[in-house]
Amino acid sequence: MATTTDALGYEQARDELIEVVRRLEAGGTTLEESLALWERGEELSKVCRRWLEGARARLDAALASEEEAGAAEGAAEGAAEDAGL
Questions:
Q1: Non-local CB neighbours of 62 within 8 Å, separated by 6+ positions
Q2: Cβ atoms 40, 19 nearer than 8 A
Q3: Residue 10's closest CA among 39, 45, 59?
């Protein structure tokens, strides 16, 4: 298992988290090993959450930008119609 989460991408963190969960569910580890796995899983979960929150923010920004562009276009068309163009 990796020891740092700083440079992990979403897929890497997710895959390692899946492995951590698999090992915890399989059992057969000492209490100390289980606690270390749990802590690593918590770290990996936070990495995944940060990636997903970042992706959500980017999507929200893109959608807001698209809505603003549509509203501006609609206003321009309305002004052109009002001007008789």
A1: none
A2: no
A3: 45
- The alpha carbon of residue 27 and the mean position of all alpha carbons in its chain are separated, in whole angstroms, by 29
The 3 state secondary structure assigned to 62-79 is HHHHHHHHHHHHHHHHHH
3-state SS class at 3: coil
Please provide residue 9's backbone torsions phi and psi, each rounded to the nearest 5 degrees. -80, 170
CA distances from 68 to 45, 49, 65 (A): 34, 28, 5
User: What would the pLDDT profile of 9-34 be if each residue is shown by its tens digit?
Assistant: 999 999 999 999 999 999 999 999 99
Distance of alpha carbon 5 from alpha carbon 21, whole angstroms: 17
**Residues 50-64: b if buried by 16+ CB within 10 A, e if exposed:** ebeeeeeeeeeeeee
pTM of the model: 0.71
